[in-house]
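Checked the freezer inventory, then went back to the computational side. Two predictions to log before the end of the day. The first one is the construct we discussed on Monday; recording sequence and tokens without edits.
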Amino acid sequence: MMKKSNIFLNISSDLQDEIFEDLVKKESFKLQRIISQGHTTPKDEWYDQDEDEWVMLVSGEAVLSFFDDEDVHLKAGDYINIRAHKRHRVSWTKPDVETIWLALHSQSSE
């Protein structure tokens, strides 16, 4: 029997740390659920990933900052494709509600 789940279920009430959960992991891609609530990337740290990353905000709000580029404010339903090695960080997530992300990491198209 096929197992189903729900993106809004099984969220810990203790969100002291941001939660990263693999939903699907294959050789060529990984789909994660990320849950933030006021979490940000530490100051002066940047993600610099070897793979492309497509992210969609399912709920909440966030701001992604890009090194030498403009900030992008995301609301529920917004998505963005971040190419490999595009340095970025989460500079803000809404502090009073859960921000739920879907992040698809895949082999770089370059």
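The second is the one RB wanted added to the comparison set:
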Amino acid sequence: MSRNHLIAPSILSADFARLGDEVRAVIDAGADWIHFDVMDNHYVPNLTFGPMVCEALRQHAVRAGGARVPIDVHLMVQPVDALASAFAKAGADCISFHPDASTHVDRTLQLIRDAGCKAGLVFNPAASIDGLEWVLDKVDLLLVMSVNPGFGGQGFIASALRKIERLRRLIDDSGRDIRLEVDGGIKVDNIRRVADAGADTFVAGSAIFGQRDYAAVIAAMRQQLAA
């Protein structure tokens, strides 16, 4: 199955005072998706965006020709279901959550899909992927955290590469069309190594928004991925 590479800048590292401008700028620079890191100061020690921010930014997540850019929502919240439904109504395209934050993982996945969104599962650095095979038929995306969730700007945890490799084998063996995303410490100098482990979708926050020229960073990432 073909695995085209997607780059999903995380607005957690954007300028919050001008989020609409930042979203348009990073799309003009070549972003494939816009990534929302949703934190609740409960499941993780930080507080970020709610559904109203997603709804407000939906109108900015379009290309020059009018094509919509997918909004990729990563829920670091507990409980999950109510906020998953709210983000679906707010215009999210893909909603991912942590299995340990949901009482019934299968039910939450189905709820997200019934709302018309793609559904994903997220695995923290020390989290096991055991049991994933029982819900793989309801999963559109798997997200590996290569940092501990809660804050931007952390360094990449190298052991995540082994988890990416295991999940790539699991996806390929299943024959399903499931994207394998990685979030945390992704930069120009390590994106190729992460792709070689099997990832096809890359979340980058400070590596993009922390630079003056977003287009130059994204172009450099694509150059590494094409090498």
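For RB: The longest strand covers residues 34-39. The CA atoms of residues 61 and 69 lie 5 Å apart. Let me know if you want it refolded.
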